[in-house]
């Protein structure tokens, strides 16, 4: 198994919604970009939520637009051993210090987890501190979860709109 590390958080003091994934996949690590796999629907989903074309934008514009719309981004896993990109293959992980991060976000009102693994690890890591925020478990944007129709995913992801 290969040792993997997450990217730095993308947040600022205006962040109202923090979206937490699990750990970047192979394509993301290779390109050093969040959600770089071409079949991952993250940028399409968030783009529909904020009514902006993120899927067609360059990476710097994507990150700038997230912050402009008070959306932050990070992962629950700081580092782990994993072969491939599947969350089910994550082993020996250490969690990011989510509490230290949220303490720097005065406008934060909600934390959304992109998929089940992120939710499981994130809720455990936050503990009682999570009670202060609205917590949402979003259907995974990963191509590994393509069995859930896009329209069904988008219906849940659209809940973010009222929080930003």
TrEMBL record:
Q: Which residues form a coiled coil?
A: none
Stated EC number for the protein is: 3.2.2.15
What molecular functions are annotated in GO for this chain?
DNA-deoxyinosine glycosylase activity
Top-rank taxon: Bacteria
An example Pfam family from this entry, by short name, is UDG
Q: Which InterPro entries match?
A: Hypoxan-DNA_Glyclase (IPR026353), Uracil-DNA_glycosylase-like (IPR005122), Uracil-DNA_glycosylase-like_sf (IPR036895)
Keywords, comma-separated and alphabetical? Glycosidase, Hydrolase
What the entry lists under SMART domains is as follows: UDG, UreE_C
Domain Uracil-DNA glycosylase-like, chain residue ranges per copy: 8-161
Q: Where are its TM segments located?
A: none
Broad enzyme group: hydrolase
Q: What is this protein called?
A: DNA-deoxyinosine glycosylase
């Amino acid at each position: 198994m290969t040792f993997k590390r997450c990217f730095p958080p993308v947040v600022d003091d205006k962040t109202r919604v923090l979206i937490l994934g699990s750990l970047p996949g192979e394509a993301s690590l290779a390109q050093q970009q969040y959600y770089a796999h071409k079949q991952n629907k993250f940028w399409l989903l968030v783009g529909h939520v904020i009514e902006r074309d993120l899927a067609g934008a360059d990476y710097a514009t994507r990150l700038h637009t997230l912050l402009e719309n008070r959306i932050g981004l990070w992962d629950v896993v700081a580092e782990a051993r994993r072969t491939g990109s599947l969350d089910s293959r994550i082993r020996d992980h250490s969690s990011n210090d989510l509490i230290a991060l949220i303490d720097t976000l005065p406008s934060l009102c909600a934390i959304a987890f992109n998929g089940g693994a992120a939710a499981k690890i994130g809720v455990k890591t936050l503990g009682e501190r999570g009670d202060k925020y609205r917590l949402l478990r979003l259907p995974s944007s990963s191509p590994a979860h393509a069995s859930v129709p896009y329209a069904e995913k988008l219906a849940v992801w659209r809940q973010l709109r009222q929080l930003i």
